[in-house]
Amino acid sequence: MKKSICTYGFIPLRSEASERAEMVSQVLFGETLDMLETEGDWTKVRLHHDAYEGWINSKLIDSIQEKEVENWMQADKWLVPAPFIKVVSEPDKTMHLLSGGSSIYFNGPDRNSFSIGKKEFYLSGNHNVDKPAGSIADSASSYLNTPYLWGGRSFYGIDCSGFTQVVYKMAGFNLPRDASQQMVLGDIINFVEETCLGDLAFFDNEEGVITHVGLCLGRGDIIHASGRVRVDKLDHQGIFDEETKSYSHKLRVIKRIL
Residue 105: which H helix or E strand, with range? Predict the structure, then answer.
């Protein structure tokens, strides 16, 4: 089975082989994938980090030697901090914005340059790539006011489970893509007063279907993507929206994963 590496800031992952199809997720720079089948100008892929499947435009898939992909997958990679960094590709000097959670394997002559297939890149600006990752609170807060976008995982737009997935990825933990999948993990926290930074709170609708997830900050605060990435109050009923003076989401369960 052929494999590849994403060499774009992000690639839309769609439910069907069409530009008009629903965007179910995004592939971030440096993430790897399997190519499952083709249909016209489209390729169905499976992402390695969360096993999510969807269709991407074949023009956005680089032809890369299998050994190079395997080396990239096995290497220790630097996770781009939120919200983004800039890299430059050679020889055309094109600027690329890489969103938080993107992955870089420095296979060049120094800790500033790398290549993927026939493309060569170097970091723009000064970045201490050996510095330990920031706290989960810092990573999450970097997305404040990022607009909500169904299927999004980047600073351009992000959805609720994409937000928790990427923040956890920057903390070194791979979460599944969807809120209902994330809820299966971890230990139940019985009381809001017992929540710690990094706990995940899940919310359901009247039919009991999980529809939302947010990241607990402690002290009764929760950061989540709803309209935009924002901080609201969490209690035993759910999320209280100070702007509307009403509850926006009904609490189902709180889980501790980290």
Answer: none
CATH of the domain at 217: 3.90.1720.10
Q: Which helix (H) or strand (E) holds 138?
A: helix 136-141
Angle at 215 between CA 27 and CA 133, to 5 degrees: 65
Is residue 87 assigned to a domain?
A: yes
Whole-prediction pTM value? 0.95
Name the 3-class secondary structure at 126: coil
Place of tokens 């060499």: 7
The domain in which residue 99 lies consists of 3-124
DSSP string, 154-176: ETTEE-HHHHHHHHHHHTT----
Same domain (yes/no): 146, 75: no
* Alpha-carbon gap, residue 221 to 202, rounded angstroms: 14
Is residue 242 domain-shared with residue 152, that is, in the same domain?
A: yes
Span 23-56, pLDDT tens digits = 999 999 999 999 999 999 999 999 999 999 999 9
